[in-house]
Amino acid sequence: MSNGPFEIDVDTLGNLRPISKVVLSLGSNLGDSAAILQEAVDFLAETPDLMIVDVSPVYESSLVGEGPEQGDFLNMVVVAESTLEPLTILDRCLAIEENFGRSREVRNGPRTLDIDIIMVGKRISEGDIELPHPRAHERAFVLVPWHDVDPNGEIAGHGPIAELLDDIDASVLTPRRDISIQANTGF
Ligand SMILES: Nc1ncnc2c1ncn2[C@@H]1O[C@H](COP(=O)(O)OP(=O)(O)OP(=O)(O)O)[C@@H](O)[C@H]1O
Ligand SMILES: Nc1nc2c(c(=O)[nH]1)N=C(CO)CN2
């Protein structure tokens, strides 16, 4: 899959809307994380004008970066196609996070659900959203699952994820083959 926009959609008013590749990183380390990830993917699949192309395997890892003592994360990546604007996708992701009672009281604290927007086509930072996600290129919990389902993926400004993987320690991740998240698109 290219990084798009690579196709055009025509809406009911006849407007042309570019279809962009969207990559999302989902993480959870509070509550029943496997069930939360499945429900989050279900909510994403119900989003109008966003079509899930693939969901990755799930990996477990300890907190990357600064933060209080907390449980290990489950992480996965969703690859989709969408005509939505990045800020509309962000609003939808924040609403899905809130549905699981996501709290931001403790900075970098444990979270029921975190959805990071890794990229929307070749779009770059605009307003309240940083694109591509500024830390995605150095995060094993993003690059490894993404590469599993999209080996030719690229991050604008950083290059092919297959090459970025050479610079990270993937051994920090434990594959959770006992957990399988499905994209139930209803078709
Ligand atoms: N690409 C992006 N994906 C998600 N949120 C973004 C993005 N760019 C900017 N934001 C803003 O940053 C906020 C995300 O803050 P949050 O507390 O979830 O960060 P985090 O996921 O804990 O840390 P990190 O940004 O290192 O992944 C969102 O509310 C949103 O307004
Ligand atoms: N292992 C792991 N570490 C993290 C994660 C995460 O999802 N998994 N998310 C972060 C902020 O988004 C910071 N650190």
From TrEMBL:
Pathway: Cofactor biosynthesis; tetrahydrofolate biosynthesis; 2-amino-4-hydroxy-6-hydroxymethyl-7,8-dihydropteridine diphosphate from 7,8-dihydroneopterin triphosphate: step 4/4
A Pfam family hit: HPPK
Family matches, as InterPro entries: Hppk (IPR000550), Hppk_sf (IPR035907)
Domain of life of the native organism: Bacteria
Membrane-crossing segments per the record: none
NCBIfam families: folK (TIGR01498)
Protein name as it appears in the record: 2-amino-4-hydroxy-6-hydroxymethyldihydropteridine diphosphokinase
Organism whose genome encodes this protein: Tessaracoccus lubricantis
Gene assigned in the entry: folK
